[in-house]
Design brief:
0% helix, five-stranded mixed beta sheet, mainly beta
Length: 548
């Protein structure tokens, strides 16, 4: 994805990060190829409730997704507007609904952008290792991210080198980095792209470089793709006069690159994807007026034939939301899905308001916009990145967009390419099931059993070395109170009473627990708020979790 910002007159796009998945075939969990599901009709979408997403999805700035036979993967990018304690994460999920932190233990967690690519059962992660002078590094995992092989470190460079893109396929792996001279502030107008290639064993060799200048607010960037017939590199560059200067290169082996053709009726090219013999390319025709408007388009070609245009993007139909002038539409990510393609992005109105947008195509030639309001795409300002696996598409969105400074509040949508498939009815959970477990906050915790019994622990702020119990012993909380919960008036609430005094409240005090977004609960005792409590091992807790 490109991290987008409001662009002044003399600036242009900022760098993008590749998402590369199995674009040539769908894979079954056993690793065998299976028949691609048709995409003749729009996928059916389901928004995963925010209450079911990890609390670390707060301030999660999505940068890329990929999918292997082991599941879905999602990574975040560095955002200068984020608070300094927001670390970068990699999450994995088997079904797109339940996500777990799978961040490599030695990955840099600041000032680096992560990029993911998957092929078969293996997922590759491009990022950085180290903190004072991070080095470009590549990890890979053949499971669900529980174990990553030791990072392959790129050589130390006297220049500033940052990750840009990674792509993988049966032919091998390519890594693209941006290099700017010196160790000070990067000189974007002198930037170049460096390409390294490897076979699937992962031993990278430096193979090729190409100049790719950019300017402040418009970093040089690239997107890569590995297909059955070779490797492709789409660069995102400008001239010294701030004009778009994107180029497309092709290589048979990832080492020797030659120019490839781009459509003649466009000059700004953003994303590409391949499905079978069809390649699609998104972009537009950029102008130099004060808003730097474009006429967004999608092109397609079969094999390496001539590019053909699909015409302007479908703006949708009133009275749906997000029906704006075509120059207010933007595709920010694209993937092959089933026998066709899905693109996501945003629709921005003249008043600067924005909603998520999605388009799908059964063949790369004809594209239709999905209904925005009916699918809940109005809740984020943009749909950000996506990946497909079998009949399932996972889409990440974020409430943070441009430079709002608001918490990210990442959201997930799950698309079904085969909605006629009958799913077995899941049994209804027990009334208190959403509350079972141990929930923590700084200085307190609550453990809730399935029958509703709970134990609340809290710090008394009095040390046992100079006070009789109840008292705290080091970091061990000395306060303890028990009670019993029962279902509340809604499925998101539970109520009960304390058997013992708790803090300044007497025995018999009432407790109300409300399930909130991003796997958090809010506790109130006798109507007084005791704060937000998060799932165990979460680094984002009370004070960071918003209503979403």
């Amino acid at each position: 994805m490109r991290i987008l910002s409001r662009r002044p007159a003399a600036t242009r796009r900022v760098g993008l990060v590749l998402i590369a998945a199995c674009v040539m075939s769908a894979c079954s969990p056993s690793g065998r190829e299976e028949q691609l599901p048709p995409l003749s009709k729009a996928p059916v979408w389901e928004r995963v409730p925010a209450a079911d997403l990890p609390s670390d999805f707060v301030d999660f700035e999505p940068s890329s997704m990929s999918s292997s036979t082991r599941g879905f993967f999602a990574a975040s990018s560095y955002s200068p507007s984020a608070s300094s304690d927001v670390t970068q994460k990699v999450f994995a999920s088997l079904d797109g609904r339940n996500w777990r932190d799978r961040t490599p233990s030695n990955m840099s967690t600041a000032a680096m952008r992560q990029s993911l690519a998957s092929h078969g059962s293996t997922t590759w992660l491009l990022g950085g290792q180290g903190f004072e002078i991070p080095r470009v590094a590549v990890w890979k995992t053949t499971d669900n991210g529980s174990s990553w092989k030791p990072a392959a470190l790129m050589p130390v460079s006297p220049d500033v080198e940052i990750p840009v893109a990674i792509a993988v396929g049966a032919s091998g792996v390519v890594v693209v980095t941006k290099v700017t001279p010196g160790m000070g502030k990067p000189e974007e107008e002198m930037a170049r792209l460096r390409v390294r290639s490897a076979d699937t064993s992962g031993k990278f060799t430096r193979s090729w470089e190409t100049p790719c200048p950019g300017h402040e607010g418009s970093e040089a960037g690239a997107e890569a793709l590995v297909t059955d017939d070779g490797f492709y590199l789409l660069t995102d560059c400008t001239t010294t006069d701030f004009e778009p200067a994107d180029k497309l290169f092709k290589s048979a082996d990832g080492r020797k690159w030659t120019p490839d053709s781009l459509p003649s009726n466009g000059n700004e090219f953003d994303h590409m994807a391949r499905n079978g013999s069809v390649t699609v390319l998104t972009g537009g025709l950029a102008s130099d007026n004060v808003e730097h408007t474009t006429q967004p388009r999608i092109w397609y070609r079969k094999d390496n034939g001539r590019w053909r245009t699909t015409g302007p993007l479908d703006p949708g139909r009133l009275p749906d939301a997000g029906v704006v002038a075509r120059h207010g539409q933007k595709v920010v990510a694209l993937t092959a899905a089933g026998t066709g393609f899905v693109a996501v992005g945003f629709a921005r109105a003249p008043d600067d308001s924005s909603v998520g947008a999605m388009w799908f195509s059964p063949d790369g030639k004809k594209w239709a916009k999905q209904r925005t309001r009916a699918n809940g795409f109005t809740s984020p300002r943009s749909l950000t990145t996506l990946t497909a696996r079998g009949n399932t598409i996972a889409v990440l969105a974020s409430h943070r967009y441009w430079e709002t400074g608001d918490p990210a509040h990442a959201r997930i949508w799950i698309g079904d390419l085969a909605p006629r498939t009958r799913r077995s009815q899941a049994p209804s959970p027990a009334p208190l099931a959403p509350f079972v477990g141990t929930w923590i906050w700084s200085g307190a915790s609550i453990t809730i059993a399935r029958n509703g019994d709970f134990t609340y622990r809290y710090t008394t702020l009095v040390q046992c070395s100079d006070h009789a119990p109840p008292c705290d012993e080091g970091e061990k909380m000395g306060g303890r109170a028990t009670g019993t919960l029962r279902p509340g008036h809604t499925s998101k609430t539970a109520v009960g009473t304390f058997n013992e005094p708790v803090s300044d409240e007497p025995a018999g005090s009432t407790i109300k627990i409300t399930r909130k977004s991003y796997k958090t609960i809010e506790i109130a005792v006798n109507g007084n708020s005791y704060g937000l409590f998060c799932e165990p091992h979460s680094s984002r807790c009370a004070g960071h979790v918003g209503a979403g």
